[in-house]
Amino acid sequence: MSDFLYIYRGGERANTPEESEKVMQRWVAWMTELGQKGHMKDRGQPLESEGKVVKGKQKVVTDGPYAETKDVVGGYTLVEARDLAHAAELAKGCPIFETGGMVEVRPVMEM
Amino acid sequence: MIVDEHLFRRESGRMVATLTRIFGMHNLGLAEDVVQDAFCRALETWKLRGVPDNPAAWLLKAAKNRAIDVLRKERKVREFSPELDKRHESEWTLVPTIEEYFQPTAIKDDLLRMMFSCCDPRLSEAAQVALVLHLVCGFGTAEIAAAFLSGKAAIEKRISRAKHVLAGAKRLFDLTDRDFSVRLTAVRRALYLLFNEGYHGASRESVVRTELCREAMRLAGLLLDFAPAATPATYALCALMRLHAARLPARIDAAGDLTPLADQDRTLWDASLIKEGQRLLERSAVGSDLSEYHIEAAIAAVHASAASSRETDWMEIVSLYDKLVALQPSPIVALNRAIAIAQADGPAPGLAEIRAIADADRLAEYPFYHAAIGELELRSGNVASARKSFQAAAAVARNPTERRFLERRASACDS
């Protein structure tokens, strides 16, 4: 088994509290399932949408991350899977696709 | 790991009330934004981290932290509530000051004060009820529109106008204010209307309606917990709500169809609500204060104690309606009295009473006026005029449920 990082990008916010509650319930169900099947290493953390970017030799600080809304990283989770293909397959259960977001699946470098 | 589907709605009222006490009524919009923000943060965090053991406490803490942020950032540029302790101006005392505002007992009072603020005499009763639903119960404008069979845009307009009126006051209504008892009357009236909207209301969806009744009962319960508000009329109102709510399971069937009182399966009535209602009615019987709620609750109690329509003490109900007519004369009350007379003395005296109603023209658009005449004509054997009355009733039905019910009555005349 190897470790993979799921990076959540984009995804529309629901319009009503009821709708967002439903979305949240689906996330909780998915995360719980990953845990029960032994894939969960670290549930990770959500990220604020605001931030700063420090760049270049001059270490210029700008308001960021300046990516398109659909690309902004909203959070991450660390999972365990057999290989990259398996990790990508598992990511298909993520509710983020219902709200137009995506999951970037990145293998954690091994020794 | 399931969140109660009403969690956000319920917590919203508490949080908006407390934040409004801190920010001031003129910053109500800011309070609502902070609450929305707390909800969004909750969802983003719970998605990944899972739902905490006490989600309500988590939300409250998130709202408190946002309030502290806002005060820190804006204390120099924005004027907050005059009752906000000056201690918020010092970084040393800001956090403990806000902690105090978020104590559970303080929050309960804030909710009560918000309810009294919503029932501002400058607002129409319809606007008061919409505001209570929106600010205290946390209903969205779409839900309120559905409950009142009104357009979302119309409700939004009504609420935003009403908020504008409230913003004239800098602070939540003060429960020690000398207008307290006048406001209390308005609050009871708004809760009564809220309950009735759920009980008799237009919305087809029985879930929505039950929820309205439940909210009205919950808020009336807050009045009972606050001694100056727990007057005999408040007890009577609470009794009335319970005695009526007890009949809800038998009143609307799974398909959303109405079953009239006489045909209800009384074994479906909620015995514990009836008992609770009777207890509250007893407690309301102190002093000389006799409100319309007392009489309506007493009528409901007579029904609740009867095993069937036939075994109901209709004479007692007629005499209660006599009192109600004297206290609060209206064509609808007169109509209900006439129906009770028909039950006690037969259809002919009932019809005579209906024809004697003073402002009967005000009932022309009320479907159950025509339906009552239809029922009594039918019982007198005048099938043709009964059918005509039921058809007239169906023509002014206010929603599909009523229309279906009345059309069924009209076609029953043919068999």
What does this structure look like?
The complex is a heterodimer of chains A (111) and B (415). Chain A is α+β, with helices and mostly antiparallel strands. Chain A has a single domain, classed as Dimeric alpha+beta barrel (Alpha-Beta Plaits, 2-Layer Sandwich), CATH 3.30.70. Helix content of chain A is 25%, strand content 32%. Chain A has a four-stranded antiparallel sheet with strand order 2-5-1-6. In chain A, strands 3-4 form a two-stranded antiparallel sheet. In chain A, strand 3 and strand 4 form a beta hairpin. Chain A is flat. Chain B is mostly helical and 415 residues long. Chain B has a domain of 102 residues. Helices cover 68% and strands 0% of the residues of chain B. Chain B is built from 20 helices and no strands. In chain B, helix 1 packs across helix 2 and helix 13 runs antiparallel to helix 14. The mean pLDDT of chain B is 90. At the A-B interface, helix 1 and strand 5 of A face helix 1 and helix 2 of B.
What is the helix/strand order of chain B? HHHHHHHHHHHHHHHHHHHH
**Terminal-residue CA separation of chain B:** 55 Å
Structural class estimated from helices and strands of chain A:
alpha+beta
Protein structure class of chain B:
mainly alpha
Radius of gyration of chain B: 24 Å
The beta-strand count of chain B equals 0
Question: Care to count the β-strands of chain A?
Answer: 6
What's the CATH H-level superfamily name of chain A?
Dimeric alpha+beta barrel
Strand line-up across the major sheet of chain A: 2-5-1-6
Q: pLDDT below 50 for ≥5 consecutive residues: which ranges of chain B?
A: none
Residue-averaged pLDDT of chain A: 89
Q: Gyration radius of chain A, to the nearest Å?
A: 16 Å
